[in-house]
Amino acid sequence: GRPREQPDARRHDRRVLFAHRHNFPQPGSWQKFPEMQHTVRFVLGLKGTMSEAELHWLYQRLIGGKLAKAEKGELHWRLPVGMAYDLAQTGQIGLDPDEEVQQTIRLVFSLFDQSSSALAVVSHFQRQHLRFPTRHHGGAKDGELIWQSLTHSRVLSILHNPVYAGAYVYGRTKTRTKALPGEAPRIKGYTRQVKREDWPIVILEHHPGYINWEQFLCNQKRLQDNLTFNPEENRGAVREGAALLQGIVLCGQCGRRMSVRYQTVGQIPNYQCNQLHSKLGLKTCQSIRGDRVDTVVAKTFLEAIEPAQLAVALATLDQLEAQARQSERQWKLRLERVQYEADLARRRVVGVDPENRLVLRTLEREWNEKLAIVEQLEREYATLPKSTLQLTSTQDRQRIMELAQDLPALWSAITTTQAERKQL
Hints:
By secondary structure, this protein is mostly helical. The chain contains 14 helices and eleven strands. The strands form five sheets. The protein has a three-stranded antiparallel β-sheet with strand order 9-10-11. The N and C termini lie far apart (about 100 Å).
């Protein structure tokens, strides 16, 4: 056979071909002219540098075009559930055309407005056996809507998203591709949240929303107040403890926020200003027994709100009726959806040839499954707590008006929880 070429011979042929293409002297002549080696290295290095500069220039042009579209509010991205691009393909952002999806998002904002707690919203969904939508993006299930249980992280993502307030925001996050010393490299880089005041592009009233911008800022302030890791600045969420002034009482000597300690198995609260002691090892500023302070504060609060008893009664009545209507409406939409799916399965059975048993058996099985879901939801709806029924009778209204005239009795009632007193 043909003798195998030596590696040095093949390398020599490649050098000759490369030099011929680029009009360089032959490799053998480099030994006669050593200065040519530096010239070749310089030219190759210059070509590599120019290629990197060209890639950087192209990347900057792409980023510039992206920012230019974002400044006009025309840059598209994946919208959260409840928002969608219009069906006319004009690129405008609007509300999701599904009425049940819209009602679910509105219910989340309404419940948070009443309770000021994201976890309370999740608890309400669980008590009423309500579900939350998720829409698939991409793949074989693109656009498909599924319903799952609502989670705490999902509520926070909704409350923190300015798209629901009708605002077009670009630059809420920044991604760093290079790892710092000691960090493990990541393919998608490191992403961090940008503060609201540092958002580069914000266009208010860009599209329809579920709330306005003022309500969005108010929700951010409430969520910030619910934090507990920074007690000197945030008062924390309302809890079930006996301390009425938990999170809102300040020290009269240094002005810092006081913490709560309990005596005798959590019955007697004690307000302490011990931040100097816990951080700097100094003496505790002051410590005050809380039950007597709470009694005076509660009495002062009831005296101050007494002129507004009628307004309080009417507001309470409206709130109860609104919450009942929202839950009732959500269940009716859910039943309407499953009934539509059952009717659609029935029409498929009717439209198929009765002699085609291969297809008819499958369609009949799907129809029976849809009917079973409808029956299950109707039974579940019938067993729900009756506390969400609408207060439309005259007797219910009269009872609330009479109870509102005696606020001290309502305040000290056993059915009034400590969390409700704190929220008031």
